[in-house]
Specification:
Residues 113-128 have a biased composition (Basic and acidic residues). Residues 130-142 have a biased composition (Low complexity). The chain has two domains: 2-104, Alpha-Beta Plaits; 126-156 and 177-270, Alpha-Beta Plaits (2-Layer Sandwich), CATH 3.30.70.120. The protein contains eight helices and 13 strands. By secondary structure, it is an alpha+beta fold. A hairpin with a 2-residue loop joins strand 9 and strand 10 (193-194). The relative contact order is 0.19. It is 29% helix and 27% strand. Helix 2 (29-40) runs antiparallel to helix 3 (82-96) and helix 7 (195-205) runs antiparallel to helix 8 (247-261).
Length: 278
């Protein structure tokens, strides 16, 4: 029973391009979603706000041009068993329609622990695959990667029956996608511009569906230097750029993204299920 329960848990993420979007009664959409999550009984939900981001082909808000901070991207993560999340999906899709993306992390299989005991590595199928030079200086939680080749992107492709099940749950097409996280530091520069903004520009050139930047508090990466704000270096903190789209579109952008980083960041690539309610 414990093994079966473990295999049912999943991570549902909701990305809202503009945090100022409202739902019925003029209430902020993300607050309505949090209240609905509470009412639905899901185990937990967390809301994050970005410092930059938006749609690649429409309004893209940056720290230079953004005055209303509540118009920055919102990222909400929900954790629970798949059955409970599945029951809540139609309502989320209805509220989100045309204003954001729905993302599922691949479900962690219950047999992973047994495979670990047998000397096999379950992480090959279900964890982010890092790509970047050995000198990558990343944000909190990132580790050194060996070799600069983009890793194979098809090893963890979602099964067709799982995609069909999710599509039926929210009544919309669900795609096999990739999430890319770019870890760098806020004060890293490339040709006089912050590296994280240069990375976002590359993603916009490839018209990636979701792009958002989040600012950390402190952290360290491959260079083992703790990045944290100081009196004369307030921008010495980690930043993370997130990108989401179909697997083929993201794969095309990866080489250019690595060229921009040039040792000042790291990529983490994760297979996801992706839905854009319209």
């Amino acid at each position: 029973m414990a093994r079966a329960a473990e295999s049912e848990w999943c991570n549902l993420s909701v990305g809202i391009w503009n945090g100022a979007e409202t739902a019925g009664g003029g209430r902020l959409l993300y607050r309505v979603l949090v209240d609905e999550a509470l009412r639905s009984g899901v185990a937990g939900a967390t809301v994050w706000t970005g410092v930059e981001g938006g749609r690649a082909t429409r309004a893209f808000r940056t720290v230079e041009n953004e005055v209303a901070s509540n118009e920055l991207p919102i990222w909400m993560e929900i954790m629970d068993r798949w059955e409970r999340v599945q029951a809540w999906l139609p309502e989320v899709a209805r509220l989100l329609r045309g204003r954001g993306v729905l993302v599922w992390q691949p479900v962690v299989r219950g047999e992973a622990r047994d495979r670990m005991h047998n000397g096999q590595d379950p992480a090959r199928e279900h964890t982010p695959r890092p790509a970047g030079g050995p000198q990558a200086a990343a944000g909190a939680g990132a580790t050194e990667s060996h070799g600069s080749d983009v890793p194979p992107l098809t090893a963890a492709a979602p099964a067709g029956d799982e995609l069909d099940q999710m599509a039926r749950a929210c009544g919309l097409p669900v795609l096999s996608g990739l999430e890319v996280r770019v870890y760098t530091v806020e004060n890293a520069q490339r040709a006089g511009r912050p590296v994280y903004q240069a990375a976002a520009d590359v993603l916009r050139q490839y018209q990636i569906l979701w792009i958002a930047t989040f600012r950390g508090v402190c952290g360290f990466g491959a260079r083992r230097k703790l990045n944290r704000p100081r009196l004369f270096q307030p921008a010495a903190v980690p930043v993370m750029v997130t990108a989401l789209d179909r697997a083929d579109k993201v794969a095309r952008a990866l080489p250019a993204l690595q060229d921009v980083l040039q040792g000042d960041g790291m990529l983490a690539i994760t297979p996801v299920y992706l839905c854009t309610p319209r």
